[in-house]
Design a protein that fits this description.
81 residues; 4 helices; 78% helix
Length: 81
């Protein structure tokens, strides 16, 4: 009986090892990759636009006085790019 349990564990280990490429995405999903320079540029541009929209939205609610000096500086930096 113990021999069957050991044999079963060995078979399960071998099957898991042989199917590791199929199992890998379940446990370690790949992060989004930028494959070209254009993809990286577009990704960075989208992130800048999101931050600008967030800052302008905050400013639109209560005016320019609602932004902290740090946020004003960041908005100036983003608008120059």
């Amino acid at each position: 009986m113990v021999g069957y349990v050991i044999l079963a564990l060995i078979v399960i280990g071998i099957l898991f090892f042989l199917n590791k490429e199929k199992q890998k995405p379940k446990f370690f999903p790949e992060k989004e990759k930028n494959y070209t320079i254009d993809d990286q540029f577009n990704s960075d541009k989208r992130e800048r636009e999101k931050e600008i929209d967030r800052l302008l939205g905050k400013m639109g609610k209560n005016g320019l006085g609602d932004l902290s000096p740090k946020e004003r500086k960041r908005l100036d930096e983003l608008s120059r790019k």
